[in-house]
Amino acid sequence: MNGSLQATVVNLLGCAARAADQPVRKTTQGVLWWAEECTKAAANYRAWRRVYPLGFDREVQLAKGEFYNVVRRAKRYNWRDLIDSFTDSESVFRADPWIPADTRKTIELIDQISLEQTRDTTLCTANTSPGSDNITVRMLRAVWHAIGSLVHKLYQGCFTIGHHPKPFREAEVVMLAKPGRRDISSTRAWRPNSLLSCLGKGLEQLIARRLAWASVHFGVLHPQQIGALPKRSAVNLVACLVHDIEEAFARKQVAKLVTLDIQGAFDTVLRNRLILRLREQGWPPNLARWAGSFMQDKSARICYQDIVTDSSPQQCGLPEGSPVSPTLFLLYTEPICRLGN
């Protein structure tokens, strides 16, 4: 009976291994960097572990540290000898043929910016409140015939080299009270909104449109991601929700909605992490550089009624009033939507 059970278990495990297509590799060759001193250090570590099975004693920790140091030193010496033996590029691939090639697809964006696009993103917007430079959209419309070509050259240069000018990174933060009865002495009762340069917003709006279009066209964002994207507005989200609820009611079922909220969403974005995310997604280098410049050396001053504070540097976070912040935040949190896939 026991023999039959054992044979059955072995057979099941073999079938599972073959189904997974991951057979156990058998080899008689060890790692190239393993040396005699590694064997001695490993034996010493195992001996102390047998004496102190819990592994909390000082002797065990010292033996463990010595073993790790010996292994690290052996690897370093082995790689140095291997690198010194290289004579040409072919020897590199012969020595390490398992180096994976970069299979990431680079997202190709049009580098050229037309004068019409510059005018559309700068002037064809609502007359929003100006930033610290006090230049409004109405003022830009009045003098566009004289500065239009200069603004176009500025936007083209910033987009090509991946730079966001320092004056565009200075913001005035106004405190807006959240709706409802709230304790105004609490910081959660207020919503900070960054007033940025209207000229800088034109550049941000131009880049935001290209990011949003490419995110949908190249499938960077999840198909069910809605908001700050073309033809995926909050109205579409509400329509989908109403449709699902009506379908549930038609089948005499109960519909439940679970919502999640990221507290202080834009404030949690880290500059280097955002740059890494954009590079992993395959965005052009100039776009990743622009995002890094957009979040670097920012400053803000708080305005409330007649009180204006001095400017202070901001270490992280996306400005709340920027047109490009929602799209950058979607790209920043893109892996979350794919966790279940």
TrEMBL record:
Q: Which residues form the Reverse transcriptase domain?
A: 157-341
InterPro entries from the UniProt entry: RT_dom
Origin superkingdom: Eukaryota
Cross-referenced PROSITE patterns: RT_POL (PS50878)
Kindly give the Pfam families that the UniProt entry links to this protein.
RVT_1
Protein name (record): Reverse transcriptase domain-containing protein
